[in-house]
Design brief:
The structure holds 2 protein chains of 2 kinds. Chain A is of the alpha/beta class. Chain A contains 18 helices and 21 strands. In chain A, the strands form 3 sheets. An 8-stranded mixed beta sheet of chain A has the order 6-5-4-1-3-2-14-7, with helices on both faces. A 7-stranded mixed beta sheet of chain A has the order 9-8-10-11-13-12-19, sandwiched between helices. Chain A has a 5-stranded mixed beta sheet with strand order 16-18-17-20-21, sandwiched between helices. The two termini of chain A are about 20 Å apart. In chain B, strands 2-1-3-4-6-5-8-7 form an 8-stranded mixed beta sheet, with helices on both faces. Classes of the chains: A alpha/beta, B alpha/beta.
Chain lengths: ~550, ~280
């Protein structure tokens, strides 16, 4: 099971460069032409605690990290205790002999050697990378190159430290594993980067966000590239400011996006409804972490599906879609920007920490993206809320000699406040018809991904899709995986064909929100469910075993 | 000036201080136009409450926003298109209660917007409860034995937060008020104009303001002087209390860029993304 996959796991304290170690390992595999998937497991703290990073690699696409590792490097005792059990039968366990007494595996004096240089704890990760490199038989020259490419600071110290570890490890573990070179040479990006790049491909002008795990990466990425790519990334005082500024920005004609987690979206909720009423095209990225409330701030779950579907008080069309892979996140973000502009209503790109902060080798065609071309006012006398057949009114942006009124109160076609019952009905109907037009539009689009064609039908969505696909791949189970990309409106027209089939639902929720949704809306009765809600993503081998039992 | 009116029926109480603010603002628009600021570049927003209806009585583009958020709404407009003159009409409950953070931070970052606060010291549209600026002892339906809290002083707060133009006006001095609003809008940076607004139904302060307000001649130059004026209650000086020049937020963030007017072409964006996505 999963023999074609090689997995490296490194664990240590926060501040020891664990995360960076994983990224460098992934870069090494990328240089070998292999595909990789990287998952960071970290706690909500700055120093200490326990962090680990897992990188799984193969010469085929890998959709998930595997928890059973070929090489485990434990930088401290806790990592040893937690991860020695993750080792495969013929795996290699490397530990820091300065922090762990004689144990099973290969001890390397990572700290003693590091103390010869300034900031010794920062070197430990380089030691872990070196151990991995030795175990897969990387030559010294190639390792030196990797280190100078990946660690921009202290190149000489890192290189010298690495060589001393290399010498200490060489005899016992050089070339223990033979890794085939692949021919893919794909970049590795995480979900946040994919969403940010997808938004840029989709014409993003302005991004507002208040820091919150697990989507802060989008803000950081866009802020770093703002001048180069002609985008503005702003961190205002709160999520309330974020969404209200976004609505003002959209009014001025800017393609605008915001990002947060559910606690932040809860603060935005009043203005989400405001966006529905004024018909503001605003896209919101919702990165889920386990709740309720603060929950597990740096872990993953799919507990906010219902929250996303029902966001905002009052009746107005909402668009909610969730990418099933890091690649899909790129395309879907540009598509969602297009949709919110096409239908002038707020949308949510629903995703999870497991997608936003995990990295994967991606093969992205930037041309396969949408660039919003909203319906613009042509001539005559402008009416912001002109009643049309589809309910979608032409847009016009200031400065204009025409009066452009957006209004949170019920309003007439000009956007002027009204309390008139006839106009109230007319405007309700207009917004409802937009929802119908949206459904009509989506009927001609790809709204559900269907992977494989086995008898067993597995329903899943979001990042869990990656776990399911990898589980099927390594366990050799034949199944049809049905992954609705759109969740609101739910593409019932696509799901109906699966009614009555033997169905399994896999989701990361304790109450089965997704099972309930497809049952209520599409009449899909699940015969069995696999639910995980411990904050951790699925391990594909364990998941494969669970699916087999079904 | 009639071409600035809409067909919306005016529902303010007869004698409301808001009429004076509306008329003063219309005069300010005329002054702006004389200075070469085209009307179409003026975009407005308002929150929720009696003050907010002003956006429905003015034939200018903008957003009737939600409670407390108008300063955030217009900051969004300004960031997206810095060519716009973005003005937020706010109430005292609206912007000093529910939306105080936006007011403070707009001042802190010197956002190039103008905030006009209709300060009537009462939540009038919800039948007269006390607000953050109501005097101690104010009796309303939620404080039948009198408000026990000490009021916030809007000018003091704005000075402390970093506003670069702070002024106070009174509709009883209409031309003076329209001059203040004009000056606030012309100012590059965050301008805050508190308007002492009598509420004939729940907090009639006409007599008090007619007695206590006095037009300031000559301007206090230092922050210390301005702070002292902002805290006076024996007299209520009206005029520009403080003015200084500081770099504005959008220029600090992106210089002369304009996100909507200077948008990067799709081809250019995709080219750059392609190179970022090569391993």
């Amino acid at each position: 099971m999963g023999e074609d996959v090689f997995t490296f796991l490194v664990g240590g304290k926060a501040g020891e460069g664990v995360k960076k170690t994983g990224a460098v390992a992934a870069s090494m595999f990328t240089k070998m032409g292999r595909h990789s998937f990287l998952m960071d497991d970290y706690q909500s703290l700055i120093r200490g605690g326990h962090n680990f990073t897992v990188v799984s690699t193969a010469t085929r696409p890998v959709y998930s990290h595997h928890m059973r590792a070929d090489v485990v490097v434990a930088l401290d005792k806790r990592s040893y205790d937690e991860h020695a059990g993750h080792l495969k039968q013929n795996g290699l366990l490397v530990y820091n002999s300065d922090t762990i007494d004689k144990a099973r595996g290969v001890g390397l004096p990572l700290t003693t050697e590091a103390k010869k240089y300034p900031n010794p704890s920062l070197r430990l990760g380089v030691g872990a990378v070196t151990a991995l490199a030795v175990s897969v038989g990387l030559r010294k020259s190639a390792l030196k190159q990797l280190i100078s490419d990946e660690y921009k600071r202290d190149v000489e110290e890192n290189s010298a430290y690495s060589m001393s570890i290399y010498d200490a490890a060489q005899e016992t573990m050089f070339g223990r594993f033979k890794l085939e070179n692949g021919d893919s040479h794909l970049p590795m990006i995480n979900g946040n980067q994919s969403i940010a790049m997808g938004s840029l491909a989709g014409g993003l002008d302005v991004y507002f966000a208040y820091p919150m795990t697990p989507t802060s990466g989008i803000l950081h990425f866009l802020a770093a590239l703002d001048r180069e790519l002609g985008v503005v990334a702003v961190q205002p005082e709160s999520e309330l400011a974020v969404i209200n500024m976004a609505i003002g920005s959209a009014f001025a004609g800017a393609r605008t996006m915001v990002g947060t987690s559910a606690g932040g979206l809860a603060l935005m909720e009043e203005a989400f409804s405001f966006a529905g009423m004024v018909e503001a095209p605003v896209l919101c990225v919702l990165g889920t972490r386990p709740g309720p409330s603060t929950g597990l701030a740096t872990y993953t779950e799919q507990c906010d599906l219902s929250f996303a579907l029902h966001q905002g008080h009052g009746e107005f069309p909402r668009i909610v879609a969730s990418p099933g892979s890091i690649e899909e996140a790129f395309y879907l973000t540009s598509e969602m920007l297009d949709l919110v502009w096409r239908f002038q209503t707020p949308g949510i790109l629903l995703t999870e920490k497991h997608l936003t902060e995990s990295e994967m080798s991606v093969d992205i065609d930037v041309e396969r993206t949408a660039w919003p071309q909203p319906m613009m006012f042509q001539e005559g006398s402008y009416r912001r809320y002109m009643d049309t057949e589809t309910g979608v009114s032409p847009l016009l942006f200031p400065p204009s000699i025409q009066m452009i009124k957006w209004n949170s109160n019920e309003h007439d076609e000009m956007g002027i406040t009204t309390e008139d019952p006839v106009l109230t009905v007319k405007m309700h109907d207009k917004r409802r018809r937009k929802g119908e037009a949206l459904v009509h539009h989506l009927k001609n689009a790809r709204t559900v991904n269907i992977h494989g064609d086995g008898d067993l039908v597995i329903f899943t969505y979001g990042s869990t899709t990656m776990s399911v696909l990898e589980a099927l791949s390594v366990s050799g189970i034949g199944a049809t995986v049905v992954q609705p990309v759109y969740l609101e409106p739910l593409p019932i027209w696509e799901l109906e064909q699966f009614r009555g089939r033997k169905a399994l639902v896999v989701e990361q929720s304790s109450v089965g929100q997704f099972s309930a949704l497809i049952k209520e809306k599409a009449g899909i009765e699940s015969q069995s469910t696999i639910r995980k809600y411990d904050g951790r993503p699925f391990d594909p081998i364990e998941l494969g075993d669970q699916i087999k039992k079904v | 000036m009639d071409d600035l009116a809409t067909y919306r029926e005016n529902t303010w109480c007869p004698g409301c201080g808001n009429f004076g603010i509306l008329n003063a603002f219309k005069k300010s628009v005329a002054l702006l136009e004389k200075k070469g600021v085209a009307r179409e570049r003026i975009t407005i927003s308002s929150g929720i409450g009696c003050h907010a209806k002003i956006s429905q009585y003015l034939a200018l583009s903008g957003i009737h926003s939600i409670h407390g958020r108008a300063p955030a709404t217009v900051q969004g407009m300004k960031l997206a298109n810095p060519d716009l003159k973005a003005i937020a009409f706010v109430g005292d409950g609206d912007a000093m209660g529910e939306g105080l953070e936006h007011l403070l931070f707009a001042a802190k970052r010197n956002a190039d917007i103008t905030v006009i606060m209709h300060n009537n010291g009462v939540y009038a549209l919800t039948t007269g409860q006390f607000t953050p600026t109501s005097e101690k002892g104010f009796r309303g339906p939620s404080t039948p034995r009198g408000n026990v809290e000490v009021p916030l002083r809007p000018l003091t707060l704005m000075l402390d937060a970093g506003a670069t133009l702070v002024a106070r006006g009174y509709p009883g001095e209409l031309d003076h008020l329209s001059q203040l609003i004009f000056e606030g809008i012309m100012h590059e940076g965050f301008s805050f104009i508190e308007v002492l607004q009598p509420c004939v139904s729940f907090n009639n302060t006409y007599d008090k303001y007619n007695k206590l307000t006095e037009v300031m001649y000559g301007r206090p130059m230092s922050r210390e002087e301005a702070l002292a004026i902002s805290q006076r209650t024996d007299r209520l000086p009206i005029g520009v209390v403080y003015k200084t020049d500081k770099p504005v937020f959008h220029r600090e963030i992106f210089g002369e860029w304009n996100p909507v007017m200077k948008r990067v072409a799709r081809e250019e964006r995709l080219k750059k993304l392609k190179s970022m996505l090569s391993p």
